[in-house]
Structure formats: structure tokens, C-alpha cells
Design brief:
Elements: H1 2-21, H2 25-39, H3 55-71, H4 75-88, H5 93-105, H6 109-122, H7 127-145
Length: 148
């Protein structure tokens, strides 16, 4: 029985990704959530000796579940997942970028700037982050000129 559970859990992340790529977001979200639960993590947990999953896989699951929430316009829940992905794997630039986009969309320009800068520190060739940084600076200046 234990071996079967292990096999199912190993297949959960790729299966979730397949549903995500097909736009089957409800199925993908349920599978990402099951994978996260299986890993035995909470948003504030760190990898430990008893961890069942690699930090890379867990961070990917959090990030991708966050994307699904972003698509649903559940921005704050999406940011929670991006933050969890960052906590699990601080060198993974994609959740910083995704959180930066969400912060930008919500008008939190200073926080978005920090996330875009972090992405570029981790991966200087990340062109979308460079564009996001540039646009955030422009929009922040525009907001300041209008005094709101």
C-alpha cells in the first residue's frame, strides 16, 4: 500500500502540469494542492530531513497553483502561493516575477520593483522581468506626478 501511494505521488506533479498546459485549471489546481499536502509542507516550513519532496518540485507546485489563482483573479491567494514558492526555493526566479506582476497589477509599485530587481539579480537575461521593471518605474513616476 505504501509503495502505491509513493507511485501516485510521483506522478501527481507531471499530471498536474499536463492538466495546466491543457487549460484544465480546476483539475490541475486539485493535483497541485494534493502534491503540496503530500509533501507535508506549510507556507512557512523549510526543507528538512523528513521532507518527502524536492524543493524544486514543491516550489514549482506552489508557483503553478499560484498561476491558476492569478488567472481566476484571486490575486492575494496567488501571491501567497508565490511567496511560499520563494520560501521553499529562494533561488527560483519565476515566482518573484509572478508576484511582481501581481503587485504591479494591484498598484503596489515599490514592492513590484523589488521583485523584478530580484528576478534580474537571479537571472539577468530574464527579458520579461526587465520590461516589467521598466514599466513599473514609468507607472510609478506617472502616479507620483498625478499625486495619488
Amino acid at each position: 500500500m505504501e509503495r502505491q501511494q509513493g507511485q501516485v505521488s510521483q506522478a501527481t506533479l507531471p499530471l498536474a502540469q499536463a492538466h495546466f498546459e491543457k487549460g484544465q485549471y480546476a483539475k490541475a489546481e486539485a493535483l497541485y494542492s494534493a502534491f503540496i499536502r503530500h509533501c507535508g509542507w506549510t507556507a512557512s516550513a523549510r526543507a528538512g530531513p523528513g521532507s518527502k519532496c524536492s524543493p524544486e518540485d514543491l516550489a514549482t507546485a506552489y508557483n503553478n497553483r499560484g498561476q491558476i489563482k492569478y488567472f481566476r483573479v484571486d490575486f492575494y491567494e496567488a501571491m501567497d502561493d508565490y511567496t511560499s514558492a520563494i520560501e521553499v526555493k529562494p533561488s527560483f526566479e519565476v515566482p518573484y516575477y509572478n508576484r511582481g506582476l501581481t503587485l504591479y497589477r494591484l498598484g503596489y509599485f515599490d514592492e513590484a520593483l523589488e521583485d523584478f530587481k530580484k528576478v534580474l539579480d537571479l537571472n539577468p537575461g530574464f527579458q520579461d522581468a526587465a520590461l516589467g521593471l521598466k514599466q513599473t518605474i514609468l507607472d510609478k513616476e506617472e502616479k507620483q506626478m498625478r499625486n495619488y
